Amino acid sequence: MFKKISSKLMNTLTKIFRYSKSAEYSRRYFVINAFEGALTVWGIILGIHLLGSRQVFQIVSGGLGAILAMAISGVGSAYIAESAEQERRIKEIEEALLMKIEGTEIIKAHRRVAIMSALINSLASSLAGLLVLSPYLAAASNLMESSYAFTYSMIILFTTLFIIGIFLGKISGRSLLLSGLKTTGIAVIVIIALYLLDLIS
Q1: Using CA atoms, how far apart are residues 47 and 41, in angstroms rounded to an integer?
Q2: Which partner from 110, 154, 161, 183 sits 20 to 30 angstroms from 27, CA to CA?
Q3: CB atoms within 10 A of CB 82
Q4: pLDDT for 86-108, tens place per residue?
């Protein structure tokens, strides 16, 4: 049953991306928002730490609030933007063919891809953010010592960004290691910047 459903889902997704030619945009949404989600939540964690607070529930509340905001804004912004873009493409296709193609698989694919992009946009940032926040969620549930949460969260952040870098390297055909180091390097810059801001203030 599960195999049948998953197979049907994959066929539907393949058809949507093939007809709409939007696979690369979905990949872009995923990478950008996963990167943003991980760094945003980490920024909140580090910011609270730099303020001198070590309260797990405060960090969890701030992190979940940010994740919820990113999820909602991600769905809304991506759907509105992608819907407008897909409608423009539909008009271009109809003008090129000199005929209306309403109701065809091509039209359905172009309109469905807006929904797909919105979901990818939202889920990527939410899941990446939850990954980084997961040690604090575990600490809040008494599944681990709260003193370890910061370190584990940082490890997860760098691991997540490194994997994103490898993914980008695979797409571009460039060095996987170099791509991974580039994405983790950005996280290092953010951390240094936050520490410098704390010193200045």
Answers
A1: 10
A2: 154
A3: 25
A4: 777 777 777 777 677 676 666 77
